[in-house]
């Protein structure tokens, strides 16, 4: 009888995440950068919710806002926080009408 080929155990390749594409400034592509005027106005506002209301009024999307400003402890602002502030604004506007 001839020699039989034996299967070698091959270790699976480790799963790695693809690198996030970044812009020249090192931010994720698509991340909204605030203008100097928007940055100045945001710094003058005392609460995160006030900043969110201002930026919603400027026409930024909820995801752009969540990427553009940090929360009170300096971490990434959650999309849900922005969405809750937006929904509260809509509810108050309906009450007035």
Summarize the structure.
It contains four helices and no strands.
Please tell me about this protein's structure.
- The protein is mostly helical.
- It has a domain at 36-96.
- The protein has helices at 36-44, 48-57, 62-68, 79-96.
- 10% of the residues are buried.
Question: Layout of SSEs?
Answer:
Blueprint: H1 36-44, H2 48-57, H3 62-68, H4 79-96
Helix pairs in contact: 1-2, 2-4, 3-4
The sequence of SSEs as H and E is HHHH
Average pLDDT value? Answer: 81
Task: Compute the number of strand runs.
Answer: 0
Strand % is under 5%
Oligomer: single chain
Question: Count the helices. How many?
Answer: 4
Largest sheet: none
Decide which structural class fits the backbone: mainly alpha
Radius of gyration: 24 Å
Features:
4 helices, 0% strand, single chain, elongated
